[in-house]
Amino acid sequence: MAATLHAPRDEASETPPLSADLQRIADSPAFHQLQKTRNSLAVRLSIAMCVIYYGFILMIAFGKQTLAMPLDGVITLGIPLGLGVILSAIVLTGIYVRRANTHFDRLTADAVRAAQNK
């Protein structure tokens, strides 16, 4: 007979109920739009980063001769492509931050305003 392990139930780990103000915000259409928009952008940027990163890893695994092509003296194609992976992470992060500081902040303010008017 296999033993089943259960984590001890800790009342402190349970999520407390939301206050009335937070519940109104969570129920507002503006908040749902914010969640939908933010999650959509996060998924798209994550997929883009995974394609870039794993594409580079696959090039390392299966395209060693291509990455070893000399460009100028001792610099090979792999060096600028590796830097491109790093720079793409910085650019994608910048895209998310810019969007969060403009569009997402407006949607957040709309959700709070909508909750205050109820």
Automatic annotation (TrEMBL):
Keyword Transmembrane annotated: yes
Record-annotated membrane-spanning stretches: 41-62, 74-97
Keyword set, alphabetical order: Membrane, Transmembrane, Transmembrane helix
Keyword Membrane: yes
UniProt cross-references to Pfam families, sorted A to Z: DUF485
One Gene Ontology cellular component annotation held by this UniProt entry: plasma membrane
PANTHER family, per the entry: INNER MEMBRANE PROTEIN YJCH
Protein name: DUF485 domain-containing protein
Source species: Stagnimonas aquatica
